[in-house]
Structures are given as structure tokens and as C-alpha cells.
């Protein structure tokens, strides 16, 4: 393992010090975690439904905030898959696809904007759940399982936001060293 | 004006180049804008109420998402006042209160965390408004003015988030140059 790291470092001496290799690996781990959180959040929100009065069905699509949540999950997921592919390539080969300042700026702005997206989706979901749930309960329609699932999805989205926000701190610190 | 800038630059040659003075002034402008947006958002959300059936009154406090919105406005406002005081001091005197890496790290993490707070408050407010408004309308209680005011406050909070997010880009770029 140590030999391997040394070889990689030696091969890219001009552009990548050892600490950069470490932070790339941490970034890749964070992105894998985000991938898992967003995947489960997606599955949970899509499966969120409950039958009312034995016939009509309440689906996640009926709550606009959950639709927005789904769209932020999809956007975050797509960005994350792209970044994971780039990260895997850069960890394996020791080189970056986007060389120079462009790659670091892409990481910096990408993580920043996507972390804002994920947080807004999660907050909108929680905001809608909290008050709608109280309102439905006051109307003798508890729907606990429906809102429980939606909140589980919003929580996973929040975890996905947290890992992306941590990645964003790393990419902010990496930015001007190379620019 | 030019003389003044030169004098300031000369006085702090060791730590602050001219571009740093410019970005400090831009940062101060962004913080003044955030201050104005958050102040109006605070006033609007506090004044959000509507009488139901001529007797009972619906207040912003009855919607939990709006309470959360208010708390993020207050947190953002307090942070912003502190940063404005520090910015004014640094623009006037040409020196920073927190010298070295500490000041830049405080700006970086502060702007990052507070921008996340403001966005989550705004998103929670919009998420709750959108679906509650639809739900109330379906129950023949339009409450257009109530939700209109709440959305106005959430929009102003969103503008406050945007100016803080732009400030956060500036403080991210300023970070490792001095660290």
C-alpha cells in the first residue's frame, strides 16, 4: 500500500503532492457516501404513498415540495456520478481530466451549488412535512406512515447535503493552491 | 479617492495588496445588502397574520416552518451585524481585527454556514407555503394575503442568502492566499 502511494506520488511529482492524493481519496469516499444517501433517498421518496378511505391514493407527487425534493435528488445524483467518475479516474491514474485551474474551479463551484440544491430540497421537504402533518392530524387523518417516509427521505437528503458540504470545504481549500 | 487608496495600501503593504482592499469593499457592500434584505424579511414575517371567521387569528407563529424561518433570519442578522462591524473597521483602518489565518477562516466558515442557514430557512418557508396554501384553498380558505406576505419574506430571505453566497465565494478565494 505504501509502495503503491509512493509510486503514484513519484509519477505525478510535478503537479500532485502526497497530501493532495490523500484529500482526493477522502473526496472520493465522501462522494461514494453521497451516492448511497441520495440513492436511498430517491427510492424512499418514490415509494411514499398511502391509500385514503380505501380508494383514493395520496402519492408523493401530490405534495409539490416533495416533487422539488425529488428533482434536487436527481440533480445531485447526476452531478455526483459525474464527480465520482472523474475522482476514480484521477485516483487511479494520478492525473486529472480537467487540468490546471479549470478542474479546481469546476469542483469548487459544482460542490457549492449542488450542496445548496440538496439543502434547499431537504429543507423544503421538512418544512412541508412538519406543517402538513400537523394539519392532517388536526383533520383526523394522521397519515403517519406517509409523512414518516417523506421525512426519512428528507433526512437522507440532509445527510447527502452534509457529505457534499464537507467535500465543498475540501475543494475550497484545494482551489487557490493551484490557481 | 485614488490617493486615499494608495495611502491605505502603502500603510499595509506587508499584508494587504490593492485587490484585497477592493474585495473588502465589495464584501462590505454585499453585507449591507444582506442586512437590508434580512431586516425587511424580519419585519414582513413578524407582520404576517390574518383573521379567520372574524374572531380567531392565524399568525406566522402557528406555522412551524415560519418560526424556523424567523430563527434563521435572526441568526443571519446577528452574524451579519458582527461581520459589518468587522468590515467597516477593516476598511476604515486598513487592518483586520483577527490577524493572520484566523480572520480568513472565520469569514470562510461563517459565510458558508450562515448561507446554508439562510437557504434552509427560505426553502422551508417556501415548501410549507406552497402546499399549505393549496390545502387551504381546497378547503375554501384562500388566505392569499397571509401566504403572500410569508412568501415575500421567504423571497427576501432568499435574496439575503444569495448575497451571503456571493460573499462566501469571495471569502473562499481569499482564504488560502493568506493562510
UniProtKB/TrEMBL annotation, chains A, B:
Location in the cell reads: Cell membrane
Looking at the UniProt entry, the stretches that span the membrane are 26-47, 68-93, 113-133, 154-175
Keywords for the protein's UniProt record, in alphabetical order: Cell membrane, Membrane, Transmembrane, Transmembrane helix
Casparian strip membrane protein domain location: 23-162
**Source organism, top-level taxon:** Eukaryota
Q: How does it sit in the membrane?
A: Multi-pass membrane protein
By its UniProt entry, which Pfam families does this protein fall under?
A: CASP_dom
Q: Which GO terms describe its cellular component?
A: plasma membrane
**Keyword Cell membrane set for record:** yes
InterPro entries per UniProt: CASP_dom
| Quaternary data | Homodimer and heterodimers.
The record's comment on protein family reads:
Belongs to the Casparian strip membrane proteins (CASP) family.
What is this protein identified as?
Answer: CASP-like protein
Amino acid at each position: 500500500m505504501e509502495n503503491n502511494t509512493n509510486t503514484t506520488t513519484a509519477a505525478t511529482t510535478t503537479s500532485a503532492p502526497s497530501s493532495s492524493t490523500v484529500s482526493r481519496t477522502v473526496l472520493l469516499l465522501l462522494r461514494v457516501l453521497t451516492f448511497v444517501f441520495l440513492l436511498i433517498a430517491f427510492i424512499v421518496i418514490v415509494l411514499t404513498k398511502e391509500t385514503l378511505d380505501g380508494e383514493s391514493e395520496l402519492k408523493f407527487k401530490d405534495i409539490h415540495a416533495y416533487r422539488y425534493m425529488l428533482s434536487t435528488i436527481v440533480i445531485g445524483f447526476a452531478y455526483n456520478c459525474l464527480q465520482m467518475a472523474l475522482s476514480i479516474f484521477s485516483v487511479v491514474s494520478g492525473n486529472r481530466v480537467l487540468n490546471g485551474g479549470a478542474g479546481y474551479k469546476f469542483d469548487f463551484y459544482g460542490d457549492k451549488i449542488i450542496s445548496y440544491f440538496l439543502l434547499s430540497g431537504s429543507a423544503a421537504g421538512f418544512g412541508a412535512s412538519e406543517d402538513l402533518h400537523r394539519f392532517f392530524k388536526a383533520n383526523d387523518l394522521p397519515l403517519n406512515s406517509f409523512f414518516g417516509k417523506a421525512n426519512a427521505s428528507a433526512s437522507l437528503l440532509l445527510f447527502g447535503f452534509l457529505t457534499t458540504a464537507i467535500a465543498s470545504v475540501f475543494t475550497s481549500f484545494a482551489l487557490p493552491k493551484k490557481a
